[in-house]
Write the structure tokens for this entry.
Amino acid sequence: MKHAILGATALTLLATGAIAQEVTLGRFFGDCENAGTDTKASVGEACIIQSIINAADATLDGVSVNTLPTDWGNYYDQIKAAYAGGTPPDVHVMHRHRVPEFASLGALADLTDDLDAAGIDPSDWEPAALEAVTYNDRIVGVPMDFHANLWHVNMDLMEAAGLVADGAPVLPSSPEELLEHARAVKEATGQDYLAADFAQFPLGVRLVLALVWQQGANVFDGDTATLDTAEARNAISAVTQLFEAELANPQLNYADSQQAFLNGEAAILVNGTWVVDLYASEAANAETALSTYYAADFPTLFNEGATWADSHMWAIPAPLKANDPETYDAALRVLAFINDHNVDWARTGHMAVRSSVLESDEYAGLPHRDEYTGTADIARDTPPSARYGAIQDVLNREFQAIWLTGKPVDTALLDAQVDVQDLLDR
Amino acid sequence: MPEHQGSRRALSQRQAALILLLPFMAVYGLFLVYPFFKGVWISLHDWNLMAVAFNPDAKTYVGLRNYERVMWGRDITWGALANPGFQIVGFLGMVASYLLYRSGRAGRVTALAMGIAALLLFVLPGFHPDAGGRWFDRRFWPTVGNTILFVGLAVPGVTVTAMLLAAALDGETRAKAVLRTLFFLSQVLSVTVVTLIWQIMFSPRQGLIANLTELFGGSPVVWLTAEGFAMAAIVIATIWWSLGIAMILFLAGLQDISKDLYEAGALDNATGAKAFWHITLPNLKRTITVVVVLQIILHFQVFGQSHLMTNGGPNDTTQVLVRYIYQTAFRDSELGRASAMAVFLFVIMGAFSILQFVLGRETEE
């Protein structure tokens, strides 16, 4: 009897082992330990994506998904090292801005002819989403969202400063008005007007970039760096005037700036769409100082609307398609599952990529969704470049030097100009 | 016939040594010697990390161009007073080492080592781009400078603290044994844990240090993003982290000092600080040399503290060589260039290893 039971267990283990195709999955977004499989109940980027992955693991017959570590800071370094070592994850998330770097080397599998069979309908994707995952007319990924910078607003502080009209915040339309509003908030509440991560990740860079684009300029054009310009100076001084008047603190990193906003110490937090549901749930929490939350489009301070934006997408390594068709098929099924749950991912605050989801009542009914409908039209990014990551680091270093160490703007822009040009020349 | 049997049964000493060494040599060759030469080979190529992985022919031989692109520039000239601070110190160092040798207060090798170091300090900072010229990589030499500054602060910091701790904790009591263990414990932590602990300690919002500053009426310093404090912050974290091994080495050194010396000293009224200065320190000379050289080699490889606590900032003030190598190799995929920098780092550390070897032999002579 004992032998029979042992034998049966061994057989079952063998059988499930043989049937279940393991798919390794690489992602950032951070760690969520108990995400569960309920894709409608999880809160925050990390837990929502992990609940979708867990649901895929539980639902898809014969596919088991193994999520690799989820650190954000060194994600691309790890992925590139994994590719170079011949062991990339079977599916991995990436940004649209990285497509030129990876696809130009032939690292990403061409999914164009396999999507239909896997149950993914590219004609349901928004044109901009299709463009984001297309390289040389071939589809090299499955888009998951558009994300962009928003102005997250503490309505109580704004109300106290008289900056609310018709239930919506009154946001500045020029750098001068920005300073006026900031003074009004300080006088009325004693708190800072604006907070953002100006000291760690390139969120301050994205803020300045948006203001550069709003003047019809850019930081590089083709192979030429165009950083040492009047437009860049205008954009930077629009931000630094707040630091000089002590109406904003440049020394907060990502976690500290977010905490300052949740503690009611700043009226505005400049951050991405990825935190809308998190801040909405924090505002509902009586213990958090933030109580009335609004998610606003990035305001236009110069001539035209613009805010930094990007896309998350999923890709499969080209070697997997070439060498391991079974795992490739399983990986495609995982991507189809994620694509089917586009509306669940949009619960984070990100904008959906599927037209059918964008038109659905469920999507329209998501919290705060109607407050930033203008964002899709003003979404921008720097031109495509295989050097995107390094260029962002140059801008982050030099801009931070301006507001953290008092480096003269002229010197910083000149250094940034030279460094970006060097990168474009390499 | 008996001879034949003998050679079959017993190996000569040389053969036995070879066989016993073989496993070590194989592992050493495979995992250290081969990768080193491969690194030098890569540094002579334009070698994109991912492109070469997908197509082995995607690399091109460029000779020493990576070294030139990293270390040299356009219109570089040399001046005896281009960087007066370092160069004057270097010049005085050369004079001093000559005088010390002539007066017999320094051995030949010590004087030579000192002289070479001083000569380098005089010559290297003298290079600078002419008007209209520029370094090809304007961040490389400042990064080397930051690394040297880090080593210059961390090594004396670790050595002095570890020596004082060892002197205080050398003894048989239970309390001392417990404290020795406690002070050694930080050494076993990984760099991620150490940097996490110190990031919290330095945090202006919740950190212990900020709370203490506020308690005494000061306004908290934002250590990790303030230009004057960021390097100090990572040095402090490093000292706390790497105290243990140095302390153990000093404790071992202390136990080698004969008790008779202290007894004789006590008769001449040399106790406490006097005994430490006149008996302990001179007898620890060799240990100090070992600790300093080991620490120099270790801290030139600093990476995690800078990468995790300050991201090399603000304004590149904590950017160090290994982090620059890492970014060049993995963020920028430029393996050739990164390897050239790594070879440069090897030369520095190799020089200090040779120095240790030389100093060790001289004391024996």
Remarks:
- The domain at 138-333 of chain B is CATH 1.10.3720.10 (MetI-like fold).
- The mean pLDDT of chain B is 90.
